[in-house]
Specification:
The protein is mostly helical. It has a single domain, classed as Up-down Bundle (Formate dehydrogenase/DMSO reductase fold). The chain has 10 helices and no strands. Helix 1 packs antiparallel against helix 2 and helix 2 packs across helix 3. The termini are close together.
């Protein structure tokens, strides 16, 4: 298993794009649904800044992904900036038919993130949902056609959206935990934290079920544990298992200890561990996405 410069460029663009899409979705949903009105004055600015950065990275990495795809379909890195090759990718490939509208959505997400206010937040949720959910229409999700292909794409979309709710909300959650120590805002912060925890159970269940389905779609007819793709997939599954264990520890050991200082510190550390594990999983997703499932 070896990777050239183009592979590294494509994997990096994929990692940044997935991470930005997940972060944008998680931040917008957290702000619109989970954040109590009494905490908006305290947290709206940092969360909105997180949305803006995520939206910008989403668009730039989406352009980089398109350019890297043009280079891989063309004659090398020189075609990454060749308008003719890029135009062919957008007009004549299934990837391009999805990617062109996605780049428009990414640009609109930046516009929506520039405006504060309740209505703008819901518009941001819409664009973030479209940007993240449509990732289920590219890559290995397109290996089947007909009804089976539609089920595969739907499963992929549910997988990325549920991961966006869980992973994407972790940084806003850290912002929220900073308010737990304030007696005037502790009750509201604690309520939001427990509301996220309850919805997180649903998100994790969807994530696990769709993950099993996605794995079956990709390798059911060609299992080969000697293939690098499938070996890395096993590593990804192992990391996801560790992340689930960490989430259970956070929910049932550390969360009940709040608002004691020790409980808050433990939950902050546990959440940071989840963020790190999530980043490692996304790195593997970016890498195995450029590999053949049976190769």
């Amino acid at each position: 298993m070896s990777f050239d410069g183009l592979d590294i460029l494509l994997a990096t663009a994929r990692f940044l794009h997935y991470a930005a899409a997940i972060q944008l979705f998680g931040a917008t949903v957290f702000s619109a649904i989970l954040l109590p009105q009494g905490l908006r004055a305290s947290l709206s600015r940092p969360i909105l800044n997180l949305e803006r950065i995520s939206a910008i990275v989403l668009l730039l990495s989406g352009i980089a992904w398109l350019m890297a795809s043009a280079a891989s379909m063309g004659d090398g890195l020189q075609d990454a900036v060749n308008p003719s090759v890029i135009g062919t990718v957008l007009a004549d490939t299934e990837f391009g038919h999805v990617w062109g509208p996605r780049l428009v959505i990414c640009a609109l997400a930046i516009v929506a993130a520039t405006f504060p206010g309740e209505r703008a937040r819901w518009i941001s949720v819409l664009f973030a949902t479209l940007a993240l959910g449509s990732l289920g229409l590219v890559g290995h999700a397109t290996i089947d056609s007909g009804p089976l292909g539609l089920i595969n794409e739907t499963s992929q979309a549910l997988h990325v959206l549920s991961s966006g709710f869980w992973l994407g909300a972790l940084l806003p959650l850290l912002f929220l935990l900073a308010l737990i120590r304030d007696p005037a805002r502790a009750s509201l912060a604690d309520g939001a934290l427990r509301r996220f925890s309850g919805l997180g159970h649903i998100a994790v269940a969807i994530l696990l079920l769709s993950g099993v389905a996605n794995t079956w779609f990709v390798i059911a007819d060609k299992p080969n544990l000697g293939a690098p793709y499938q070996q890395l997939l096993l590593v990804k599954i192992g990391l996801a298992g560790l992340m689930c264990v960490m989430a259970i520890v956070n929910r049932y050991l550390f969360l009940p200890a709040i608002p004691r200082e020790s409980g808050t510190r433990q939950l902050v550390r546990g959440t940071i561990i989840e963020v790190v594990l999530g980043a490692l999983i996304l790195a593997l997703v970016a890498l195995i996405g450029i590999m053949a499932p049976s190769g």
